[in-house]
Structures
1.
Amino acid sequence: MSPDLVRFAYLVAASLFVLGLKGLSHPRTAVRGNRLSALGMFIAVVVTLIDQQIVRFEVIVAGIVLGGAIGAVWALKVPMTAMPQFVGLCNGFGGGASVLVAGAAYVEVALQSDGALPLQFGIATLASGLIGGVTFWGSLVAFGKLQGIVSEKAVRFTGDHVLKGLFLLIGLAAGVLSILQPENAHYYWIMIGIASILGILLVVPIGGADMPVVIALLNSYSGMAAAATGFVLSNNVLIISGSLVGASGFILTSIMCKAMNRSLANVIFAGVGGDAGDSDTGPADDLYEGKVKSTTAEEVAMVLDSARRVVIVPGYGMAVAQAQHAVRDLANQLESDGVEVEFAIHPVAGRMPGHMNVLLAEADVPYDRLKEMDEANTGFEQTDVTIVIGANDVVNPLARDAADTPLTGMPILNVDKSRTVVVIKRSLSPGFAGIPNPLFAADNCLMLFADGKDAVQELTTAVNEI
Amino acid sequence: MGETIAILTIFVLAVFVGFEVITKVPPILHTPLMSGSNAISGITIIGAILSAGSQFTTLTTVLGFAAVVFATINVVGGYLVTNRMLAMFKRKE
């Protein structure tokens, strides 16, 4: 195959990637978009395989078979509740692949050259190695946190910023040396090692509820690493695809930050939620004392019986309790009684962007029932009952009304504006931000203390029996 | 230097295209967007294939092999899981 033909095929592949992402602008066209994108990948791989630069195929075939089998089994088996971990780990593999390719190219070029490496190649291998190393190890830590292997808490120690800065400088220095003295390849591997440590140090201090930001950011990094590898190989399709992914991750990151009213620097360096939970009980007791109304499923069913419009607000707790199917049953039951049911979804509910939507879609909730925050907020005043399941900070009125709390300024779902709010929750424990929620003590709020799934099932039965 | 500028141009324009296209993705599809774009970042597979197949040294072949495995997991896993997720998004019948 002539080099021009190969490049042309790569152009076709890149175009299909863009069209594929364009398809994601609506659920109707999304499946087709994903297939177009996959077709683009297939073309790119086939063309590369029949390119003349390849001497032997055994190693390639072995790699593709092994990777393909792992990827396929994993993708078909992974439960939807584990999707954040899945995407987190995939980011890492993308970053890892970029480092390995850049490393192989470095070894090849370094062995053939005397003196410093060409500038573009040098800078690109440095960038690919650093970003890819950070992505790989950062993603592994993120996976560990989401899977519960590593503490979800924000682990901090004094001087950690200084340490990170120091590692970054050493990493950069090793990278520069690897470009100037390619005859000594150790520098390159030292840089990768430092990047790995840096990746771990960057993610370990980040707490569970900030995960959507980190996953999105690592997604962006994996794209940037691929683009950097494109510069290493002077390969356009890598550059284009990498930039698309980098842009995508960056946009998601900024959406997540905006939805928490925090800057990216604040999420990465400030580590909210270190010891959320136990410290603030004093003021919480004052706030809740004598005002919290505990209720039962039967009582809630009675309230729901006279409701015409019900909004359900899911949070990470719904995912933990695996309650999405039970929630769907409740929604169906209410709808069959002629109630209008909607779901209001906060952008950072869950552990990754769009987490709640996927879970509810899995449970066959039609996507036109899933409302984004801004749209949902226009409807709470006309809502008879809002049911909050496993969400806390995203419905905390302090974010809107108080001046000096960790949540202040964060956009919330104004569930307190609806006539009655039912909060399904195990206890009055605070959310990730570690502050009490005055919603629980509000006049129009009923607390249903129970496991999310059990409570919703009891509720469905109770509604059915009325 | 000419070539560097040429690919830099492609890079910058691709970033702009990325921003334009991705801002139109609605929040309900943000998870499939992540897994789908993840699959796309598996494009490093073509670099991996060239490293693994060029038999330059044992080291580059080993690195290439590992890269092929990682990138293939990314590509196959990413597209399959995205397809699985997107198939679940339905309108009310």
2.
Amino acid sequence: MSRGFLIRVGALARKEIIHIIRDVRVIYMALGLPVVMLILFGYAVSFDLDRLPFALVDQDRTPASRRLVEALTGSDSFTVAVRLDDPRAVEPYFRSNRLKVGLVIPPGFGRRLQRGEVAEAQLLLDGADGTTTSIALGYAAGVGQAETRRLLAKTGLLGDLGLRDRVRLRFNPGMKSARFIVPGLIAAILAIMAVLLTALTVAREWERGSMEQLFATPVRRVEVVVGKLLPYVAIGMVQVLLVVAMGSLVFAVPVTGSLGLLFGAALLFLLGMLGQGVFISVVTRNQQVATQVGLLSSMLPTLLLSGFLTPVENMPLLLRAIAAILPARYFIQVLRGVMLKGNGLRELWPDLLALLAFALAMVAISTARFKRRLD
Amino acid sequence: MSGPTGAGPVIEVRDLTKRFGAFTAVDRVGFEVHAGEILGYLGANGAGKSTTIRMLCGLLAPTAGTALVAGVDVSRHPQKVKRLIGYMSQRFSLYLDLSAAENLDFFGGAQGLAGRRLRARSQAVLEQVGLLAHRDTRTGDLPGGWRQRLALACAILHEPHLLFLDEPTAGVDPVSRRSFWQLVRGLVRAGTTVLVTTHYMDEAEYCDRVGLMVDGRLAALDTPAALKARLVPGRLFDVHGPAAGSRGRLAAIAGIQHVEPFGAGFHVRMADPSVGAGDLAGRLDAAGFPGAVIDDLEPSLEEVFLEVVEGWPAPANAPEVPA
């Protein structure tokens, strides 16, 4: 690294810092957006059932039927919203979106149980809301199984015969959504902010004509890219600190592994995203187009294809192929590994390598596409 | 090939050509610029002035031809050229949210200046362009003429021997234009060579030599006086007054070579340089225009330019040439 390199990169970075300090909007965006997104996603995106209201049609009205309802509502997962007499009366509640779950206990439920016969209760679900119903179904099925086991144990039938499944949820014993969402959210926030901010700053130089003035000096392309990126790397690291701290304080998401490893991975991820931003603005040379392309190319894949909300393993081949080159995917794996599992380098080195490869590729591509000449 | 301090030309251009697709922006242009000279590049918008200057600064790759700037071939070593020159682009590309001193710090750093040297140069150029008192003023708050002086300061911070100014005074008021030109002439007295483009004809009078660019071709290049003598020969008079007549009837008078409407009257050019104002008055009298007021007139570069453009063949590839 020559003295000239340091002087020129230093001049570019210093100028960029002045731009950032003078433009309050950038500060607001850099520090406000992560907080807003964390609160929105942290509270709104939840896969926990909390007092999901349902319609109860208890046509049996026996101690046995009441016991089933109690088993369902006992864990605070469900709550009885309305009691109806006719199963057909449930559908209007589904149609008007007032309820999504109904439980029908037909007459003779208790009597059949007493006789040792198979007793049936019917769970009605609004399939139009797939997420809610699948979570509700899972909970209700679990309650049903537990009740069955309890009844069998009482009759003495469940000796050493059946399989006893013991489920242990490691790393997130309470199945808290926040623990699963906050690491993904760090990736989403960093991706969106980094791509957007750099896409804007480089495109602005093209639009305003200052890039031409810059290219009439001996400044080299890689110096422009590095000088522009440095201040945003610093901003990105502050954002990571902010989101990790808020995740821990507000949503009780722990960092069981090494903080150093977390920040190291964040640095690699940031470099890749900033490189992507520079690449977009080098190609578009226009602030408006750069903003749109930047948002689309950072937000959509990070939210949908990275394993943030939905598992990559279930996606069709094409989407899995895209996910395979998506740095957010590896970054989220690292974050979940470090924050929840306490993983170290031994488990995470392949993911870190993938992040490094993407970062190097992006900086190289954007430098190569960065034409110093104007034609 | 000699450096900027040598005796030979500082800029040597041969058959320089730039094509954008099917459009030829600069067509086989050739000229030389000597040390300590101001060469003005005159022409309409789109005539190829900026394209030429950008090629000489290493910003655009020429399609054909050669250009040696301070002895360096711009096609082969564009980066090397950039260290030797100062360039002020068409739009002053200063950062408006930075103060005057911060802009200087940035462009100085981009040129590789740092520390004490940068501080000393920054101070010196601010003083030179008369902005020392405004070093901490935000550039966006400076009036247009001052910004343009600051842009010049940014371009000369690293003490280049060669200065390229691309329409430096576009959109600036006449007083600021004059003070800007005083600065440029001061630089030239100190040994800097300047190539400047403009579409203000009056500014071309500040130049040692003037090149006229039409449709990508260098149509003429000489001192302003020589251009006038060659392209606007004869004598020029301003004719106005109650009975100045019509253009067609004036042109029909013997000895009048050219009539150009000007204000309320006409600029009349006589083919014979020995004809005086009195002779012309007599001829106008005889032709039935008594009492016309006749003044001697020094031909301006505007006349030269019009003469060149009118004698130019219809453009073959240019989409349009705004007057």
